[in-house]
UniProtKB/TrEMBL annotation:
Positions of the UniProt region annotated as Disordered: 73-94
Protein name: DUF2795 domain-containing protein
Pfam families linked to this entry: DUF5789
InterPro entries linked: DUF5789
Domain of life of the source: Archaea
Amino acid sequence: MRLNGVDDRLERHQYPTTSEEIIAAHGNATVELANGSERLGDVLERFGDQTFEDAEDVFTAIRAGVCHRGVGRRFYSDRDPTTDAEEGPSPVSF
């Protein structure tokens, strides 16, 4: 994920602040994801009204809130095998 300079703008933003204020000031900024991009405002709107104490709080919300295009291959994990009682994705051999 690339914040395309939004991180600098968020660090200079005055805190504490609300998600509404962040969206008004920086909501049209684009976050580059593994498979596409997404508006910062769309990411933060998923959480509703919040108050952020500092820029790190906003970065945490962004990392938690990006859509599935931001996490690479969906449902893939080489660490968590599917249990016998669970249906999971079909194994893929590379």
